[in-house]
User: What shape does this take?
Amino acid sequence: MNSTRREFLTKTTEYILLTGAATVAWEYVLAGKAEASPNYKTTDHWWGMIIDVEKCIGCGNCVRACSVENDVPEGYFRTWVERYFVPDVWDEQEVNPIVDSPDGAINGFPDVKRDRPGKSFFVPKLCNHCADSPCVQVCPVGATFVSPDGVVLVDDTYCLGCRYCVQACPYGCRFINPKTNTANKCTLCYHRITKGLTTACCEACPTAARQLGDLKNPKDPIHEFLRTHNVQVLKPHMATGSKTFYNGLDGSVR
Amino acid sequence: MGNRFKNAGHLVRVALLFAAGCVIFVVARGLFVPKTFGQYGHYRAAALDDIAARTPRFAGREVCETCHSEVADLKKTGAHAKVGCEACHGPLAKHAEDPASLVPKLPDTKVLCVECHEANSAKPVKFPQVVAKDHAGDTACNECHKPHKPGLNGDSK
Assistant: This one.
């Protein structure tokens, strides 16, 4: 051994620094946290929703309940109700039905007298919790995702507010929360369904036009409903794997 | 043997630089990437717990019925059987937790009932609806219809 005192010291410091750093790094790489709520297993559920258009009375109770439950900023909506008017005879240049949703129907709908024959109905809208969600695919940082139980969620602490997802959602279900400047959307009341409760909108719906369903639970009445009704999803041609099923949906609804 | 690496000092320096780069990458990644990122997919798995941690504002009808069972029994026999308690009475999780902390106000039937039952051409035809002014004038709805069992006297609903 003919190394000098100086060489010995440099080498030793190097070794200590490197092994220390590697240990710290490895701890972070290995770390992973077990699920916090012990009674709820994400892998046991696959959430969806039924909306029975024929039962919706446009009272706006769901919109109000959602706003309260989730502190939705004023003027923004995680769920809303649309009123469609489909005329019996279309004008020459008319290509779309007449749709309105005053303030997302948070105060319901004032009656409108139409001067021509046609049908009118309400369509509640919310995040479709798509299994192959376009909004999730465009997120550049992994801030939005489909949870193992089939709910499309946003990680507020990770979202950059780049608005890609707002544009990508074909159903217009996302918005940027003006307070946090992050993407915001229906969580399917994730804080409720993980505790065994139903969503706020389903709880408040007076006609049971909305029903939460667990597609992985064979005893859930959603299966009976899907079997006995002709349900549709919105924009099926986009192959989003939507899990919000509409019963009695008119073909003109977009 | 020693001669072979006599002039390899520059290679060693490059190799050390590379190794240092690797270490910095691993350390930085460990520091900046959240611990649970990638556990279930390309996202932070702990976000699920963060989102689930919110406190519900609506208690749910099952909770209401544990105390107010007599109202629940009455309601089951009427047309409003499927209407949730908080659909009319508002979010009352606080009341359910500590009944004294928040005493719910009795809703004004003149305002509340018309939210659903005011006639509207877009409502399903089968749904019972009236033009409240013509139907009752200034009379409050609950003078004839009891909200928990809205059918008139003798009516089974």
Observations:
- The helical segments of chain B are 9-32, 46-52, 61-67, 69-76, 85-89, 93-97, 109-117, 132-136.
- The radius of gyration of chain B is 33 Å.
- Chain B touches chain A through 53 residues (CB under 8 Å).
